[in-house]
Amino acid sequence: MILHKMAFLAAVLLFLISSSSVRVHCRETFACDTKDAATATLRFCQMSVPIPERVRDLIGRLTLAEKVSLLGNTAAAIPRLGIKGYEWWSEALHGVSNVGPGTKFGGVYPAATSFPQVITTVASFNASLWESIGRVVSNEARAMYNGGVGGLTYWSPNVNILRDPRWGRGQETPGEDPVVAGKYAAAYVRGLQGNDRSRLKVAACCKHFTAYDLDNWNGVDRFHFNAKVSKQDIEDTFDVPFRMCVKEGNVASIMCSYNQVNGVPTCADPNLLKKTIRNQWGLNGYIVSDCDSVGVLYDTQHYTGTPEEAAADSIKAGLDLDCGPFLGAHTVDAVKKNLLRESDVDNALVNTLTVQMRLGMFDGDIVGKPYGHLGPAHVCTPVHKGLALEAAHQGIVLLKNRGSSLPLSQHRHRTIAVIGPNSDATVTMIGNYAGIACGYTSPVQGITGYARTIHQKGCADVHCMDDRLFNAADEAARGADATVLVMGLDQSIEAEFKDRNSLLLPGKQRELISRVAKASKGPVILVLMSGGPIDISFAEKDRRISAILWAGYPGQEGGTAIADILFGSANPGGKLPMTWYPQDYLTNLPMTEMSMRPVHSKQIPGRTYRFYDGPVVYPFGHGLSYTRFTHSIADAPKVIAIAVRGRNSTVSGKSVRVTHARCNGLSLGVHVDVTNVGSRDGTHTMLVFSAPPGGEWAPKKQLVAFERVHVAVGEKKRVQVNIHVCKYLSVVDRAGNRRIPIGDHGIHIGDESHTVSLQASTLGVIKS
Hints:
- The chain is of the alpha/beta class.
- The chain has 22 helices and 27 strands.
- InterPro entries: BXL, Fn3-like, GH, Glyco_hydro_3_C, Glyco_hydro_3_C_sf, Glyco_hydro_3_N, Glyco_hydro_3_N_sf, Ig-like_fold.
- GO terms for molecular function: alpha-L-arabinofuranosidase activity; xylan 1,4-beta-xylosidase activity.
């Protein structure tokens, strides 16, 4: 009781401290301190002046050396102008992280809420959840900034496509579908940055542009890799999430990647940076290199003959900020050698300083300013922890449930054997690019909240190199009413700079699972933690394994979420955001082969559900529930006419170029009735696919919409989806041109199908 009182008093004291705007803030004013008479009246400090004018005024006061000192992530102070130094590099992939030097945990900020890893959260297919997580993360980020222990520029999210199942960083991504990745990017960015286009709560960054999805495989690493990518794949796969991040999310930054694309380093390619990101998409923000990328293109890729040329090429290509020291070391000499103009440096600073001003960093003291009230009491709150739990509930995927073995019953299953190397996982549950979590509930702790547990790890770790602990695991299973095996991977198997060579479970994990399943007297449930897919065909086929859950990396509340689903307190509704391939898929498929479409001459299969039609363990979008839903398409047009501009808009009557179509307001509205015909309330994830008319350009099918809807037992709900014809019913030809195929498009929702005919028209848009 004394300990409880002490904890309560400590919490009250913390609340009082954090509620005081005077005491909570430890940060010195970054710039334009009103108490500094020498700088407070300078034009760039006047909030009434438009930001572009303030930026021009500030740049006009800087020497070349001072300008160059601001080109790196550790930007120098300019004392004569009252400007402090600033660390640009902070991370917030799924919670405020301490991976970058801009964030330091400690003192009254010992931790931050750690949400599920992105691949798990995306399995919810819930865009409003993604944005809500972003808002919470930015609240905690602002609080830490106010306390002097965090930055305001966060190099997240990672929106690369999970092209190859072996990629160690697949866990960070929104999966294999470009539209899902783009919608995730836009939603999470809106949550982080807020909805004021002129001002920023924090500045997000979509990375790594582009065609980056190999870290270290079979002797090839990201620093040396030249991704040979077709214009078709660039346009319809790799660039889609970044374009949506800029155009729909209004992101404040894009990060270019380490690799080359078709022989040119991405951070020195003006076609990618200046032409595409800046001019075509209209980025309102800055472009930053991945860390040491500029140094890599000179030292490792030998793309230029001198370091000054590397600095000049990068800045002229459109790079604004270098994560690393390279530009700081070589840009002055590049100007002196006439490889670069000082105005090119100015252009880079316009973009970075504008973002800092949009963040309010040149508005003086934070007290009384927007977000200035946030402090320690706004980090790791019960509401934030509750959202982390809800995200895990929504992201966990039920892969198998033979004979409705799940949920378990607290009356019939009073003793649970909890076995496996991830059964007591804590840090494993938050994946990579995480910070220090507020606290953890491991799987065995979560299950203990429902039943008596017998805990045996079975393997010392996920590598499971021997069977020394198998006998004890067998005995635990024999003595329990049900057995839960928590197996899978961790960061020692898949991580940044660590790609896999196999899709199978490591070591003797399969042997342990089969032995325990044979020994168990009750139902056996397999729970998998992983970022990438695993070939568990043996478990899917084994009738002794009653059910399988994929938990991804479920975050700090993962153990509670797993237990809630096992015992039915939560009804699973997650869907896989990536295809689970069999091990044989990797035969003759190097990670370095970038083609998304099959290459029959090389016996290369297609990649992702859009272009691969071979056998799978589980398909993209697979996920079961404890209840059953049916679909019925209540209303949808059968014909949509596309108004075109000019006689050359069609090719043999087979397609219309998107640039020739009148796209405004051109959408396909589909009304779907979703009925819960099962025995439990549940949330249904409705995925809408389009199958375009056949042709060499077209994918087999592509996701065009998704909605998540809660439906009570016996209830029917009507869901309306609006499918933008030009964005989502178009395909890309070999030249990289986006076209709308003319003819019958199949719309597929579960077992329901509808055909809509798209027709070219010079008379306007007609729907019937």
